[in-house]
Amino acid sequence: MPSLQFKGKVFVENYHLAVPFHELKPVRSKGMSKKASLHDNLIVEGDNLAGLKALLPTYHGKVKCIYIDPPYNTGNESWAYNDNVNSPMMQDWLGKVVDREDLTRHDKWCCMMLPRLKLLRELLRDDGAIFVSIDDNEVHRLRCLMDEVFGEDNFVATTIWQKIFSPKNTAKYFSEDHDFILVYARSIEKWIPNLLERREQAIKRYKNPGGDSRGKWSSSDLTARNYYSQGTYEVVSPSGRKFKPSLGNYFRVSIEKFHELDRDGRIWWGPNGDSMPRLKRYLSEVKSGVVPQTMWLHSDVGHTQDAKKELLSVLNFGRSEDVFNTVKPTSLIKRILQIATDKDSIVLDSFAGSGTTAHAVLALNKEDGGNRRFVLIECEDYVDSLTAERMRRVVKGIPSAKDESLKAGLGGTFSYFKLGLPMRQESLLDGSNLPSYEKLAGYVFFTATGEEFEPEKIRKETWFIGRSRLYDVFLIYEADVEKLKNMALTLDVARTLPRDQRNKLVFAPTKYLDREFLHRYRIAFQQLPFQIYETIDKLAR
Ligand SMILES: C[S@@+](CC[C@H](N)C(=O)[O-])C[C@H]1O[C@@H](n2cnc3c(N)ncnc32)[C@H](O)[C@@H]1O
């Protein structure tokens, strides 16, 4: 397969592996849940490269649907390439706004996207899919990157979203009326899109002239241009007229099948019984939904003006020009969720912007009684005042909203986390900069359980650092390299652990106990520092 080459590629190809795991610190005052939890709806403040990596221990292989809307790299967006890749060329790029004058802007964009796409793939479920909004500035390069990361066989479709409702006559050449949404499955043979509800218009085409006992029906042509060796016969209508397919056309069924259908009342000969026969299709027999199509019209999924109005109605910006510019309509994201999620799916958007994805998740949950969860990451300062504030308001309800369910509030809740400091295994391995007991405790507790760490629960004399839904967690550790060398989960230590029925998760540099003993005492041992990134699911297996 040909692959896309760009400046800096050699430095970023494996960069997602080198990015350190960062702490995720709950900011309870900004969330809506009493107790912050990584298993809640989530808003994560910070760069999405570190953010996605920090989510891996909890969400690896769990996300059913990813929607991202990255910068389109139009040259007017004032984004900067800021990944801390250790190469002089990359360092030279850092922090500089990517504008039209920048001759390397496409290379920078590819460097930014490649490691993020790789991490996103890690987070997807085997039967999950990713949807990426983009326009002509980068669609061809994105397609190559996606082929490389997700595999060209997993390409599903490029959909066209008609984003404006009237052409822009000020356009120099063509009025650009659409964006693209690229769709890739994690694994094409495991991904099954949901059928969409039939539109009212389509249903209206079904009628019942003559009162057919099978109910409403519509009819379709019984001939086609596809060559069919048994499709060239002649039929006679009830009125006695003879019909054959026109030149180059063939009946789609054999003559035996035709007569069988006719006897069964499934052939329509026109109102007077003297027209070319057509096949009747009963509304009660057609699939309850329609397959998703690649053309998404603004009349079905909204346009950019709808999106801005919608955001304005939730957050009172002074003037409409001040509205966050790249906001997407919730109905657009709802369409994606209808195609690609079940009622309990996890949905991830790591370029969250104003939080449309989360809004769509809550709106659809309210509509269909679902329990989908959202995970958002956003790095800009407005993550609290825009992204999270939009959620707070739609959850509680917007009194002035026209939409009744938004007026009443979509319900739900979310936890807000901030990226903390990186945790480096090397510090634990070589003893440099050893984290304090409490800091490491918080880190291992979060990454292993996905639940909020409460430092006041620590009982260091018994190595207890907290209780999760499934485990009591213990950390045998001192921030002192000499002491650490001699620390282990020994028989004496194990006997000090509570003898109750709860499972125990014990982090320590080493252990001197055999498997049977650990099993009897319901202990899952986790070696420091290597296993601090294990997830609870792996342990539970
Ligand atoms: C096009 S906007 C998304 C708009 C969103 N779909 C909506 O409807 O509001 C892209 C967002 O990605 C954010 N972003 C860009 N680079 C990022 C990064 N490295 N980490 C996290 N967020 C990032 C930008 O700050 C911006 O808010």
Short description:
With 541 residues, the chain is of the alpha/beta class. The chain starts with 8 loop residues before the first helix and ends with a helix.
How would you describe the overall organization of this protein?
The protein is of the alpha/beta class and 541 residues long. The chain folds into three domains: 9-197 and 291-418, 3-Layer(aba) Sandwich (Rossmann fold); 200-282, no CATH class; 424-540. It is 32% helix and 20% strand. The chain has 20 helices and 23 strands. A ten-stranded mixed beta sheet has the order 1-19-2-18-17-3-4-6-5-16, with helices on both faces. A four-stranded mixed beta sheet has the order 20-21-22-23. The longest helix has 19 residues, at 105-123. The two termini are 37 Å apart. Residues 534-541 have low confidence and may be disordered. The structure holds S-adenosylmethionine. S-adenosylmethionine binds next to strand 18.
